[in-house]
Amino acid sequence: MERCKTGIPGFDELCDGGLVRDRSYLVSGPSGSGKTIFAMQFLYNGAVQFDEPGIFIATEERPQNIRENFSVFGWDIEKLEDENMLAIIDATSAKIGLPSDERYVDVRPFDVRSLVDNIINIQDEIGALRAGLDSTTAMGFAIGDPGRFRVELLKISTTLEVLGLTTIMTAEVIESGMISRFGVENFVTEGTIMLYYMRSENVRIRSLEIYKMRGTNHSKKIHPYDITSEGIIVHSREEMF
């Protein structure tokens, strides 16, 4: 199977060289675990290292904040946008009733057809091969009913796969032992990557587990990772006990 390398140091070797291309994956974890960083690092590396344009769908944060926040890693998001290597869809402003002067705006909060149309138009424009949806949790709250949310998320996931986009979707976890906020997100994606942020005495420790990944071998162990000045680094040769 063709691989889509994340470029995240230490991660790709945990799953036989990278994600299976043209599939959707869930990155799930609590606040502070680095879900958004993982999704954007996947897109940033795709553009810079592998010449693959990407689309970032922001449902909980305004694009200007995203650009500023990721500048601490030395990532020039705006430069990638100017070069048509990255497009950010502002799916936040309409939700909270604010106007937006962004290039790409989803004017109907969490309307699946509107969002998909937007993604298709952007892909035609920049030739995107990767996507990041941050986060599915905001969509779940907007839709309300878990059953309907599962169907709508399946529509998005399947459509992105058909379009040839390898996608990272993020999901919030609020309790230990949970896989995702609504308990349905991991069923509509081809893989689930769990990020843990656990307290041990007076410090918090980050660790990562590939909970499932269809169509490929992957590590069954839990590995530590750090969020550094250059982004996430996974310590693939180390294990958590």
CATH fold-level topology: Rossmann fold
The CATH C-level class name:
Alpha Beta
Question: Number of domains in the coordinates?
Answer: 1
Strand order of the largest sheet: 6-5-4-7-8-3-9-10-11-12
Run of helices and strands: EEEHEHHEEHEHHEEEEE
Major sheet, described briefly? 10 strands, mixed
Q: What fraction strand?
A: 25-35%
Structural class per helix/strand content? alpha/beta
Mind telling me which CATH architecture this is? Answer: 3-Layer(aba) Sandwich
Quaternary state reads single chain
Account of the protein in words:
The structure is a single chain. This protein is α/β, with parallel strands linked by helices. The protein has a single domain, classed as 3-Layer(aba) Sandwich (Rossmann fold). It is built from six helices and twelve strands. It has a ten-stranded mixed sheet with strand order 6-5-4-7-8-3-9-10-11-12, with helices on both faces. It has a two-stranded antiparallel ribbon with strand order 1-2. Strand 9 and strand 10 form a beta hairpin. The mean pLDDT is 95.
Briefly characterize the structure.
With 241 residues, this protein is α/β, with parallel strands linked by helices. The protein is 29% helix and 27% strand.
Write the layout of secondary structure elements.
Layout: E1 3-4, E2 19-20, E3 24-29, H1 35-50, E4 54-58, H2 63-70, H3 77-82, E5 86-90, E6 104-105, H4 112-126, E7 130-134, H5 136-143, H6 146-162, E8 166-172, E9 191-200, E10 203-213, E11 222-228, E12 231-234
Parallel strand pairs: 3-8, 3-9, 4-5, 4-7, 5-6, 7-8
Antiparallel strand pairs: 1-2, 9-10, 10-11, 11-12
